[in-house]
Design a protein that fits this description.
- There is one protein chain.
- The protein has about 250 residues and is α/β, with parallel strands linked by helices.
- The protein is built from 9 helices and 9 strands.
- The strands form 2 sheets. Strands 3-2-1-4-5-7-6 form a 7-stranded mixed beta sheet. Strands 8-9 form a two-stranded antiparallel sheet.
- Helix 3 (about 55-60) links the parallel strand 2 and strand 3.
- Helix 7 packs antiparallel against helix 9.
- Mean pLDDT is about 90; it is low at about 1-5.
């Protein structure tokens, strides 16, 4: 569940994820990212390669400035070894095969550069969000209990291709109106299946929750941006990659 405007990705988090290599002229690769995330990078002036298995999304990315949208699998990248400054994966690492994609990412990254993996998730630690969860589950027991896929990052943390990893978190607050909160609640599949009386009663209680919880500046919906980055090591690649003054050399 998210606010209609959606949380903005903090620029400081993007700098951290990329190891400081997501600026003008940097060559950045995104894997399976939504067009909005790719557009944010495009506006920074990076030389962007956006890989996506969906041809329509790849085509949309290809229309962005300084962006090459490519329909391909993250597990089989059509890029040369040591050709990108940073690899970024937002909200999609759990849909990739770690045994294949991590070695591919290591292959295309330049030495001493990093991959950044991130998820934007709702922050349920705030008291009014816990009250909202209990309210929705009185109608739909499965409400607000989705698996975000963050457990899949364990494969990065244990990867021989990325022996050094780091983590950071950022809390993000998104304004949500009374009507916006009602729309978010009633858009959940389990709530839509409820009868008219249940939905009407739920709407009243959600409106009351908003009025009770909103401060002078309105109500803020909290999110947690969880970020991990891993620094590449080419020592474990089957073909040892070496870079010298003459250019790229692969020892077979």
């Amino acid at each position: 569940m998210s606010a209609s405007s959606g949380p903005e990705f903090p620029q400081r988090a993007l700098d951290w994820l990329s190891g400081g290599r997501a600026g003008a002229g940097d060559r950045v690769l995104t894997l399976g990212c939504a067009p909005g995330f790719c557009r944010m990078l495009s506006r920074r002036g990076v030389d962007l390669f956006a890989i996506h298995r969906d041809p329509e999304i790849a085509a949309r990315c290809n229309q962005m400035p300084a962006t090459t949208g490519i329909c391909a699998l993250a597990e089989s990248l059509p890029l040369d070894p040591c050709s990108v400054d940073a690899v970024l994966i937002h909200q999609s690492f759990d849909r990739m095969a770690p045994g294949l994609v991590l070695s591919e990412i290591a292959r295309v990254l330049r030495p001493s550069h990093c991959v950044g993996v991130s998820w934007m998730t709702r922050d349920d630690s705030v008291p009014w969000v816990r009250r909202l969860t209990a309210l929705l589950r009185s109608v739909d027991p499965s409400a607000m209990s989705g698996d975000y896929g963050t457990d899949s990052v364990d494969s990065l943390l244990s990867s021989k291709y990325f022996p050094t990893t780091e983590q950071s978190r950022h809390r993000i607050w998104v304004p949500v109106s009374r009507q916006g909160l009602v729309e978010m609640a009633t858009s959940l599949p389990g709530i839509r299946r409820a009868d008219d009386q249940q939905r009407a009663e739920l709407v009243q209680r959600v409106e009351q929750l908003h009025d009770d919880s909103a401060g002078p500046g309105g109500l803020l919906l909290p999110y947690q941006l969880e970020c991990w980055r891993g620094w590449v090591s080419h020592d474990e690649l089957t073909a040892s990659i070496q870079v010298d003054d003459a250019g790229l050399r692969i020892r077979l």
